[in-house]
């Protein structure tokens, strides 16, 4: 397929309301210099691919100066590019080209914690207890006669205590890895610094920010105990994420930060936005992050936990749409990201998992709101489950045995030999190895092949952009058409688009919704109706 009309950026300041955003895990997307690591120049070279795929924006995971303990979510310099990924000049060239192709750029911002190599943390270590330098982080004395126990019972999301003791006897808080000390967001210098960092990237043209751990920056006064921990009950505190209250997450005061950020975003032209990675106890509490005086979006993560069933999908959709009604802003949809097992594998892996993942894509892309795609889902990539332990780099792996490396394997682009065109011609390096089965899943192997997952995504995205019923953010109408089936319609200008998903165990006749315009598996015609196979979905159109 050729791109007929590569338009420059639209001037629509509300572009994010119904955008399709493609998440680029920079380290694993495309390697331009043959060191086995994805980089900004690699992204730049692949922009035409993304344009042709039909996405509106890219979200780039952190590419800032970092010791890479947590894949770059440990930032040592918020205003520079890590040499592993290129230079600031590469970033500027990339964003210029992206904008020329009509693609917007969202960058990740990591405000909850810095790297332990950040000059502020180094200064805090050197300056000692009671110093002004320590005030920018959360240092505290320990409990017990000699302060030998952590200040409270908080646990790291990556497992183990959230406190590490330094040689002079004090402890510092890290909700993630010890190499990611939490900042003290009650400190004016911390606030001023991040406001400046926002401006730094806005000045370089970024269209938005994905805010990492957006619910975490403020901790309850007095740092009170949670009251249980893996040590005492075998239950990890992180099980409460999105389900209960924790003294280190979703504190009311965190909203002051976003109320200060919003005017900064609004002071730039062209609709600069921010999306929160936030976890809160209830939809009502999550909704508080969104609104005209705070952030534009919060990820709705419920799809990540939904099983392959019409009922579970319907619940997710209803909950998310209800949330969006609370705030009067469109919702977001996420089937996969760099922190979760890829959905092909979650839905059963192998052929079945792939069929279901393709169907889920049609479900998601027919819904109103903003859809986030994770690189490689358009190729139907599964989770790589058998990476050798010694190659795994996720810091959570050592602490919990759970690793997010399997969804971060470099993208296969072309060719017969691993890493399948990830690097320049002849390069054999990739920081994680791709399985041999990925030869058949590469972009080159799927492009132009009818029925391939890549062509399915391209077709669905094209229709999503052109079809009046899918334009805008209007609601959906559920159709009750039988158990195991999920069906809903969207209408506009006398046309109706109906998405039907079959999660049952037999093919189902679908009548009365008009002409099929895209399907995740081939449909057969039967006496004027259509047979929708198991584990598949299709869009029907009536005008
Ligand atoms: C990111 C993770 C990261 C963590 C700590 C999460 O929200 O998505 O990849 O490990 O924040 O920064
Ligand atoms: Mg490279």
From TrEMBL:
<dbReference type="Pfam" id="PF00128">
    <property type="entry name" value="Alpha-amylase"/>
</dbReference>
<dbReference type="InterPro" id="IPR017853">
    <property type="entry name" value="GH"/>
</dbReference>
<dbReference type="GO" id="GO:0004556">
    <property type="term" value="F:alpha-amylase activity"/>
</dbReference>
<keyword id="KW-0325">Glycoprotein</keyword>
<comment type="similarity">
    <text>Belongs to the glycosyl hydrolase 13 family.</text>
</comment>
<dbReference type="InterPro" id="IPR045857">
    <property type="entry name" value="O16G_dom_2"/>
</dbReference>
<keyword id="KW-0378">Hydrolase</keyword>
<dbReference type="InterPro" id="IPR006047">
    <property type="entry name" value="GH13_cat_dom"/>
</dbReference>
<dbReference type="GO" id="GO:0009313">
    <property type="term" value="P:oligosaccharide catabolic process"/>
</dbReference>
<feature type="domain" description="Glycosyl hydrolase family 13 catalytic">
    <location>
        <begin position="23"/>
        <end position="408"/>
    </location>
</feature>
<protein>
    <submittedName>
        <fullName>Glycoside hydrolase family 13 protein</fullName>
    </submittedName>
</protein>
């Amino acid at each position: 397929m050729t791109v007929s009309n590569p338009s420059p950026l639209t001037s629509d300041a509300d572009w994010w309301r119904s955008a399709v955003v493609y998440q680029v895990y920079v380290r694993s997307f495309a390697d331009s210099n043959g060191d086995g690591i994805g980089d900004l120049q690699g992204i730049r070279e692949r922009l035409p691919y993304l344009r042709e795929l039909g996405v509106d924006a890219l979200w780039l995971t952190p590419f800032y100066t970092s010791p890479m303990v947590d894949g770059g979510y440990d930032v040592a310099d918020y205003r520079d590019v890590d040499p592993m990924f290129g230079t600031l000049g590469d970033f500027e060239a990339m964003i210029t080209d992206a904008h020329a192709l009509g693609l917007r750029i969202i960058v990740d911002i990591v405000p909850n914690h810095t790297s332990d190599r950040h000059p502020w943390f180094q200064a805090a270590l050197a300056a000692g207890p009671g110093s002004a330098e320590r005030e920018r982080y959360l240092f505290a004395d320990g409990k017990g006669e000699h302060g030998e126990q952590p200040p409270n019972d908080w646990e790291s999301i990556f497992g183990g205590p959230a406190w590490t003791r330094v040689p002079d006897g004090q402890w510092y808080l890290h909700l993630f890895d010890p190499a990611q000390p939490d900042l003290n967001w009650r400190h004016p210098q911390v606030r001023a610094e991040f406001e400046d960092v926002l401006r730094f990237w806005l000045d370089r043209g970024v269209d938005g920010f994905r805010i990492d751990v957006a619910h975490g920056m403020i901790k309850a006064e007095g740092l009170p105990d949670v009251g249980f921990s893996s040590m005492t009950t075998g239950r990890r505190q992180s099980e409460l994420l999105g389900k209960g209250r924790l003294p280190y997450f979703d504190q009311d005061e965190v909203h002051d930060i976003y109320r200060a950020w919003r005017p900064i975003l609004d002071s730039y032209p062209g609709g600069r936005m921010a999306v929160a990675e936030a976890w809160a106890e209830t939809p009502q509490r999550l909704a508080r992050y969104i609104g005209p005086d705070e952030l534009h979006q919060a990820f709705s993560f419920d799809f990540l936990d939904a099983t392959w069933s019409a009922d579970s999908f319907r619940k997710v959709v209803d909950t998310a749409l209800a949330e969006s009604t609370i705030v009067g802003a469109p919702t977001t949809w996420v089937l996969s990201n760099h922190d979760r097992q890829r959905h092909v594998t979650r839905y059963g892996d192998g052929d079945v998992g792939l069929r279901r993942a393709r169907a889920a894509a049609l479900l998601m892309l027919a819904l109103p709101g903003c859809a986030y795609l994770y690189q490689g889902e358009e190729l139907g990539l599964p989770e790589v489950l058998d990476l050798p332990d010694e190659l795994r780099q996720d810091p959570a792996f050592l602490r919990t045995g759970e690793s997010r490396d399997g969804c971060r394997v470099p993208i296969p682009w072309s060719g017969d030999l691993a890493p399948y065109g990830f690097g320049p011609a002849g390069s054999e390096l990739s920081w994680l190895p791709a399985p041999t089965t990925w030869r058949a899943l590469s972009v080159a192997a799927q492009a132009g092949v009818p029925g391939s997952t890549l062509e399915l995504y391209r077709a669905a995205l094209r229709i999503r952009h052109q079809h009046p019923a899918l334009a805008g953010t209007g609601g959906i109408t559920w159709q009750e058409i039988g158990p195991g089936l999920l069906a809903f319609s969207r209408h506009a200008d006398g046309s109706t688009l109906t998405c039907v998903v079959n999660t049952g165990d037999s093919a189902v006749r679908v009548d009365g919704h008009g002409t099929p315009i895209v399907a995740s598996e081939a449909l057969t015609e039967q006496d004027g109706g259509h047979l929708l196979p198991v584990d598949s979905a299709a869009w029907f159109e009536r005008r």
